[in-house]
Amino acid sequence: MSEKLRERVQQLAAIWGPSGREQRVADALRAMITSYVDEVRSDRFGNLLAVRKGREGGRRVLLSAHMDTPGAIALNVSEKGLIYLAPVGGLKAYHLVGRRVEWGSGATGVLQCEHGDGEVSFKKLFCDIGAASKEEALAKVALGDICTLAGPVEVWGDRLVGPNLDNRLGCAVLLEVAEHLRECPHTVVFAFTSQGEVAPRGAAVAAFGAEPDLALLVDSALSGDQPGVRQVASRLGGGPSLRLKDSGYVAHHGLAERIAAVAEAGAIPLQRAVSPTDSEGRAVVSVGPGVPTAVIDIPVRYQGTGAEMANIRDAHGAADLLLKLLGGSLELG
């Protein structure tokens, strides 16, 4: 397995880049992917698009992963310098008490909750950046600034543990594919998309501009091998997971069959799951005349926390699957 994939996940997960503020992540991805593709550009929505040209007669494939992470936006500051917040994306307040965060300004802080009846909600959650007054806090964090969970991604054998794995894992998989994609008959548009955590707008914009014949989205999804998630079949270490359905999307049958056949032929473990959470699939599938779309997930435990957990072998499996898929025919039945 490539050590570079693990290193890229760790490097990308450390970059501040909440929904709508992804420029630092995009800059890092641009530097990483430029030597593997024929052109790189950004669109007006904030997506980063890198094109690897194929042969005449090949298909045009959108390979997409959202690059933002969830965060919390500064709403108000108390006279004592405590910053009150609202969520940006899928953070849950009860996961956040005691967690360290980073602001876009570079300020760091810790999240805490007001004492009371034990209920934890964003109405009671605040960030303490060590300021002694409202004026001192506002000199470091302006209203409207966004913080994200901070901390390193640690390596526990095959497992990665830390914040922001969703969906910097997917971005790292796209980089792995770009680096190792050799002879490919198809034109591949690598799209690192904006605002995937708040709504799948970035993926829809990217698909509209790319006009693909089909789309393959790489995302992180709730793993079923954790307490209270009995309805999800996937598990860490079982391989990438083909998303059959979620709240707004159903996999294209022909494309799903092609993915399953390639996985079987290449002896790549492939899980299948129905996800209780949304994905960018629903936005891409209905663009223009319609785009045959599949979502390949990397299972992640404890999503939206400072200790997300994934198995690096599942990410490698996703990259291997995509490389074999792109190297062959993509005519769909």
UniProtKB/TrEMBL annotation:
Similarity comment text for this entry: Belongs to the peptidase M42 family.
Keyword ATP-binding on entry: no
Cross-referenced Pfam families: Peptidase_M42
Signal peptide start and end residues: none
Membrane-spanning residues: none
GO molecular-function terms, A-Z: cellulase activity
UniProt name for this protein: Endoglucanase
Its EC number(s): 3.2.1.4
Keyword entries, A-Z: Aminopeptidase, Glycosidase, Hydrolase, Metal-binding, Protease
Main enzyme class: hydrolase
Species whose genome carries this gene: Symbiobacterium terraclitae
